[in-house]
Write the structure tokens for this entry.
Amino acid sequence: MAQAENKMGTMPIPKLLFSMSLPMMISMLVQALYNIVDSIFVAQISESALTAVSLAFPIQNLMIAVSAGTCVGVNALLSRSLGERRQDAANLAAENGVFLALLSYLAFAALGLFASRFYFASQTSNPEIIELGVQYLTICTVLGFGIFGEMMFERILQSTGRTIYNMFTQGLGAIINIILDPIMIFGLFGFPKMGIRGAALATVIGQIIAMLMAIFFNVRKNSDIRMSLKGFRPHGKTIATIYAVGVPSTIMQSISSVMLFGFNRILISFSETAVSVLGIYFKLQSFIFMPIFGLNNGMIPIIAYNYGARNKKRIMHTIWLSIASAVSLMLIGLLIFQTIPDKLLLLFNASGHMLEIGIPALKIISLSFLFAGYCIIVGSVFQALGNGVYSLIVSAARQLLCILPLAYFFAHAFGLATVWYSFPLAEILSVVLSTLLFIRIYQKKLVPLEKS
């Protein structure tokens, strides 16, 4: 019997894109809400606690980068294999992806155990911030297997078009996190008052529960993939294919951790409050960017599947619809940041000094939203078509060759108030590079599909 055509090759693109993206956009909005609520509660402990969490963010971002990069490789290979009707290759992609997620977790657990104190001491000499940071980061890394497992099993669901289940896994994990935060931080309902340790524990518990639910959905609801750990052995060719796409994506996302580390070093030379302002910005902007990433997660398997099926028309329709949607969402975000920056900062118990620094900072940085939606979508198109190195080029140019040098120059030449302009200026460079590389990949990979 012939295998039935997957909906990614037949369903009308607008309906397909939004049916796959909307559940993840909703779940990621809930996650973004958690990010904001988590920092709001941490800010109630002290500004030092908020600064410690802000300094820990590059390492947490690095964990997500390594996991997401591996997942992108698995996602592209799995969806393409299904499009080409190669079931065994799809199964191997899923099984080896889970194995790589486990290895990644073990590496970060070791990092958290042995290097947390050195990491914080390299950024600040404030003993309170160092101690709070070590407490928080050690828990997030040593018990961080949930985030690696959750992301991998969710991406396997996503690769087969079952994104509705990701809404439940991510949403439940984030909601549990939000509920546990005040209980564990402040010691409510008979729980001990754990402060910043409570914030970290609430985070990892939510991740672990989300992972368990994602495993359940794969076992019970995902008939397109058959995974078996019995007699499992790592498959070198499959791992190499995953990392061919995934490593550039990991490096690309890891670059943001390097950028944040460097930017924090620049800001802390002015004040610890400036570091907190940047941390607050990244929490707030996640509420705008997370829906775009949800859109990306729905878009990538559609493009990868239809590339495997050699359907250029469906690929281009998906790309243009995704760009239009992303730019529209970013304009809404820009309007919010420009009109009520003071109210956003006051959510985090902002002092007068923080408002003085933060209001102009949010207004200036958010100008980058004008360009970011387009660049995010195009970068994900590169990954879906197996050219993750293009995304790497754009990301490295933007964050290492533009943001950090500009921030360093502005800080020393004009002071703190101008440092924030490095973000929108770097995004303009991203638009130019992304467009040039998209034209190149269009000519090399998409135009030939018309001749088949």
User: Anything to note?
Assistant: Residues 12-451 form one domain.
